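Worked example 2:
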Amino acid sequence: MRPEGWLVVVDLQQVFRDPDSPWTAPRFDEIRPNVRRLAAAFGDRAVFTRFVAPGEPRGAWATYYAKYDFALQPPDHPLFALAEDPGCARVLDATTFGKWGPELAGIVGEGPLTVAGVATDCCVLSTVLPAADAGVPVRVVADACAGADDEAHEDTLRILGCYSPLVEVVRTAEVLGGGA
């Protein structure tokens, strides 16, 4: 049985997998099996997002990319490649941490959303909160997300738990019908 709503896999990209990247999420490879299971269950009701650099950073992003100039690459650069084959899922590129906006909202409608990916404490958080503010029910799959480190991941999950019932923190087995 397919889970209700849509799966959004946030930024499961090589730049967050590479242990030499300043943006690495150390538990990236550990979450991949759960992401694959979720993507298979949601099928064509999955969206993979990619964080990509803007052509010309503006405002505070100019300062950000002055610090992380290695990432000023075109969207087709290997560092922005997805670490999983999205299959029949849509792929949405964005130059912002948060992926919630008119394009994603136009795809998923009123949800509900199930969110997985990296980094829990950055792009996942920045995607989940505006979706919840828009009234979309959101489930964050704790064991299918990875943070900048374990402490940041756990702290963010605790904060997201404070948004219940708008945001629920769950595990892969719960989403797939296997209980807690």
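The chain has a mean pLDDT of 96. Helices lie at 14-17, 28-42, 60-67, 102-108, 120-133, 150-161, 172-175.
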